Each structure stands twice: as C-alpha cells, then as structure tokens.
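step=encode ok
step=design start
structure_in=
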C-alpha cells in the first residue's frame, strides 16, 4: 500500500466526493508498492532528492488514472492543480528530465511491477472465491507511435526500434448464413492477456512485438500462470479463446496437464473440400471439423446428427447417442444398425476437434460467450488508460506502461471489493461514493 504524504494543504475529507480523486485514492491505498518504493529509495542512496521517489511514483500513477497520454500532459495538470500535487507529495512540478530518469529506473525494475501484479491477483483470489474458475485468453493490438520501421537503427530515445508489423483476421457468419472477414494490420506491439472471465480482470499478461504468434504466446502465458499462480491453474475449470489459439498441443495441454476444459474455436484446416471423415473403427459414422458426429442409416443411407451423451472423464471419451433413440425420429435400419446403442469417441481421435465439452453442444456455445471478457478488458485499456492515444516508444517502455495500467486496474477492483463496493469493481470511471 502506498504511503500518501500528509502535506499541510491535503485532506481526504475535502476530496472524498470527487470521483476522479476517489479513483486515485483507491489506487494509492491498495497498490502493494512498498517493496518497490523501499528498493528505489535505497538505490538512490544519498543523492539529490529534489523530487522524492514516492512523490514521483504517485504522480505517475495519477497520470495513468487520469488518462494523460504523455508526461507533458501530466506536468501541465500538476502545474495547474495544486490539490493533485499535494496528494502526490510534490511541492513543485518535476521537470521532464526528472520523469525521463525516473521512467528509466522503473524500466530497469520491470520484475518488481510484475511482482505487484502477482500480489494483486493473489489478493483478489483471496477476496473472491470464484476468481480464476473461468479464464479467457486473447491478444490486443497496440499500434506504435511510429508508423513504420526506422531506417536509423541507433537508439536515441525518439525512434521506435522494437515494433513490428502484426496482422489479425476476424471471421464470422451473418444471420443469413453468409460469411464475413475483417483483416486488421498494424505496426507495433501485442498485449497478450489471460483474464478472469466472470469478473473481467487480468490474471496474466505478456507484451511482445506485433509479429508474435498468438498460439506460441498462449503457451508462454500458461507457463507464467504455472510459475506464478499454480493454485489458479488447479482452480480453473474452463479456458476460452478464439480460433487464433486453435492448436492441438495447446488444447491437449489444458486438459492433460491442468484439467482445464478448453473452449477454443477451430480454424478450417481440412483441404480439398473435405467435409467429413470416417470415425475410426466404424463403417457408418463420420464427423466434421466442428466436432459434430453423424450416423448413416444402413437401410436408406440417410444421415442424422447423433446426440451428445456427455463426457466420460475416466475413459477420455465423448458419448454419442443414436438420434432415433434421443429424438424419437423414425429410422428404418435401426434394428441392424451397429451404432444403435451409441458410440464413444475418444479425444485422441483428433485433439483439435474433440474436447471434453462437445463443440456442437449448448454448453460449449454458452462457455464460449465468456471469451468476450477479454475484449471488454481491452476496451477499457483503450478508453480508460489511453492506449488509443499513446506516445510510447520501445518494447521496454511498452511493457512497463502495460504492467502499470493492469496493476492500476486490479488495485481499483481490489479497493472496491474491500470497501464493499463489489458491484462497481469493473468501473474505471465512476466513483464509489
């Protein structure tokens, strides 16, 4: 928890009704930054202390809370707002050079920011029993301040030498059955997130160049959770993600290593117009790339989709029930049908397609809707934390800025939970008063 300097001009009673400053209060009181502050103050030693470490840190947090797109914007606000300077512990507005030096020091201590993030995740897990049961994974495109690679490769603090081109393709189906596709290209970075899908709060993150594959970084995110929050992986029941994470190794890992049911959309990978494949060991049962299983009537050759009968955990199989038995439809060849009693489909037939929650089931569709939790977190980062209008250059600074924004988001949520305002913990704008 941050120590808020008590200057003679500052009193919380005076600002309690003000929404903006109330949000800053939540962050300053509930962010676990003591270890970082002590380390920075110790590393400063007996050097000049024109602007105290805590005061600089508090003002940086204020810049994030109040959505300032640049240090100069923050300095202008501090210059005109004496009450904010008092809250931060500043008697004068720090120079731009002072902020540059402070940012460099913070970038050298990125692991400390990650530790704060982990402490906040752990604290929320203790406050919210359901926190972490449903997880969702996705990446967010963050365009660089630069529009293209620089021809000059020498680092000078002004050019963005780390950004790379990225592309994401979105596909869907309209109500009339027609398909649509949207391709987004940008030059910059990616923020990869795992969030709690119920409370819409981050639990793990990484920041990479825009060219980094979602699938590869998905494995990294699981590694990070295993290292930092193994208890959450034991608690988690479902992980949802879009088709960008469609990978048999990732799907298998979720279930085999952690017992998490993956709900990840599939890409269309079958070639040459292949619509169905024969289920191994059967002569009249096929399946499609969406995981639907069909049987053919041995008398008429008519095809019907088999009904879901549930998942057998001990066997690692999905039960499929005869459609005549499940739906009461007429089947002339039922008497001689070899699958009239149903079939068991092993997940091992195709780990991409067959998962513990049957893809064509209502339950799968219901769980998949939780994936949008990541989109809402990403939207808050854009709107409430200024990532739509940023001036960040370089991977190290982008990692620092993303880490701080996510820590502020969690600190606000934690404060509202602890102050019995849980219904407002997702709000980054409204006051709790």
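sequence_out=
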């Amino acid at each position: 928890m941050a120590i808020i300097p008590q200057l003679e001009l500052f009193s919380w009673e005076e600002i309690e009704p003000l929404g903006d400053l109330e949000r800053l209060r939540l962050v300053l009181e509930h962010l676990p930054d003591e270890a970082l502050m002590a380390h920075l103050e110790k590393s400063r030693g007996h050097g000049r202390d024109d602007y105290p470490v805590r005061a600089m840190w508090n003002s940086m947090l204020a810049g994030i809370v109040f959505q300032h797109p640049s240090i100069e914007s923050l300095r202008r606000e501090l210059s005109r707002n004496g009450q904010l300077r008092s809250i931060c512990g500043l008697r004068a507005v720090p120079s731009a050079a002072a902020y540059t030096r402070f940012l460099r020091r913070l970038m050298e201590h990125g692991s400390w920011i990650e530790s704060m993030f982990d402490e906040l995740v752990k604290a929320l897990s203790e406050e919210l029993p359901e926190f972490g049961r449903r997880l969702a994974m996705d990446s967010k495109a963050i365009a660089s301040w630069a529009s293209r690679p620089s021809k000059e490769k020498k680092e000078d603090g002004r050019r963005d030498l780390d950004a790379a081109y990225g592309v994401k393709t979105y596909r869907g189906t309209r109500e009339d059955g027609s398909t649509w596709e949207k391709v987004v290209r940008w030059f910059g970075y990616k923020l990869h997130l795992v969030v709690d899908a119920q409370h819409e709060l981050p639990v793990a993150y990484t920041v990479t160049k825009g060219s980094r594959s979602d699938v590869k970084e998905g494995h990294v995110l699981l590694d990070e959770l295993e290292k930092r929050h193994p208890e959450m992986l034991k608690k988690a029941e479902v992980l949802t993600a879009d088709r960008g994470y469609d990978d048999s190794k990732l799907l298998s890992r979720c279930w085999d290593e952690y017992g998490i049911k993956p709900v990840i959309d599939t890409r269309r990978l079958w070639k040459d117009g292949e619509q169905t494949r024969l289920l191994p060991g059967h002569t009249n049962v096929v399946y499609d790339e969406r995981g639907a299983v069909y049987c053919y009537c041995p008398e008429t050759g008519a095809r019907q989709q088999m009904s879901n009968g549930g998942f057998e955990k001990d066997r690692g199989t999905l039960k499929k029930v005869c459609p005549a038995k499940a739906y009461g439809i007429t089947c002339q060849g039922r008497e001689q049908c070899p699958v009239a009693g149903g079939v068991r489909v092993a997940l091992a037939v195709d780990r991409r397609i067959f998962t513990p929650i049957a893809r064509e089931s209502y339950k799968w569709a219901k769980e998949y809707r939780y994936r949008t939790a990541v989109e809402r977190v990403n939207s808050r980062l854009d709107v409430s934390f200024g990532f739509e209008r940023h001036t960040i250059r370089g991977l190290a600074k982008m990692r620092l800025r993303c880490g701080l924004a996510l820590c502020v988001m969690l600190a606000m949520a934690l404060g509202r939970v602890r102050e019995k305002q849980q219904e407002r913990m997702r709000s980054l704008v409204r006051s709790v008063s």
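step=design ok
step=annotate ok -> Confidence is low (pLDDT under 50) at residues 1-18, 429-433.
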